[in-house]
Design brief:
The chain is of the alpha+beta class. It has 6 helices and 11 strands.
Length: 207
Amino acid sequence: MTNVHLILHYYLPFSILQKVEPFFKTQTEAFPRVVVLIGGNLQSNFFLGRIMINIREAKLEDIDTLFKIRTSVGENYQSREELAELGVTPQTVANMLQTDCCAWIGEINRQAVGFSMANATQKTIFGMFVLPAFEGRGVGRQLMQKAEEWLWSQGAEEIWLLTGNDPAFRAYGFYLHLEWIPVEVQSKGEVKFIKKRASINPHTLSK
């Protein structure tokens, strides 16, 4: 990095980033050769007060990446063998993506760190997972927004998902924060969350 007088490295959770962003802008505007980095490591840095997140639609060649992320999480961990026993294999996922499902990959600095997947026929978010090292940085929220908007665009009036029935789980609180409503405990220790289209401001949906 050339002509840089000072690097300021901050360790801040994403939840407070917006509150302090004006402070970072002031520093970078007042001192052009000051670089502000926020984050825990070079793979997950914010640059100039903003995290660089890219959300893109997953392709068939991304299926192995989806499985790598899915089998790297802490909560609700399942191995490839366990997923295969449930009928979730690279081939079945490929079939889903070519029929009634769509998936999105969240990237930070071009590294795939999370994904979401939705099923239009069942009107459900099939899954949303973020690598543990990148949790709390806004990737999960954006992945959920993509999946929800896609389901609304497919004509769904009410959508649902399943997660572990434990309020202490990170995912449980995450869905509550996004205004999902727990309505029914399932037999396998999971809880069903729902979200109705009426609770969404149509002006926030992507065209």
